[in-house]
Amino acid sequence: TIEENGLDESVKDLVGGPEEVKFSLSIFACPGIESLRGFPKHIANDEFNLSIRFCKNFKDFSDIPEKLEKLSIAATDHFTVENLKDLPKEVEVLSLDQLPNLTSLHHIHKYAKSVKRISLYQTKIFSSILGLAMINGLSEVEESFYDVNNEDKSWPTDGIIPIVEKYIGTHDVFEFQEELVDAGFNELAKQ
To answer: Does residue 158 contact residue 135 with C-beta atoms inside 8 Å?
Structure first.
């Protein structure tokens, strides 16, 4: 675990950090960490987990391994869907939790090419979820979708989850979009 103990805000990446990791790497409460540049080159386990939590400036996945068992990003202030562009090719579980600036999943399928499960716990997604239908192998989404017509935007929208579950991983984008629009979820149906 890399924690804030001994790291000040001038530490921006992992250069000079561990050269080998065995099962998991947790980067916790490191306010200066922005990037995974310098990520360990040797991983001794195929079921490797990476967790980045409470690192308010994190936004760059450069140097990340091509395959991860679980990738968890939480409570990071500046994280948006564009920050997923350097995701590994394969991730079993992708947790994008408590990310206040991640409000759209526009083009998520271009960044998360092979994922089995996505968690969006306390991440308020207001638009562009069609890419969920295009992610290979996706079979489960733990939701946090919100109706933009709801004035306070503080509660999950009833009726959206069955639609999402019907289309995730199916590649039926046009039918997915049509059903979302018919149900009144126009913002979520944006491409």
So the answer is: no
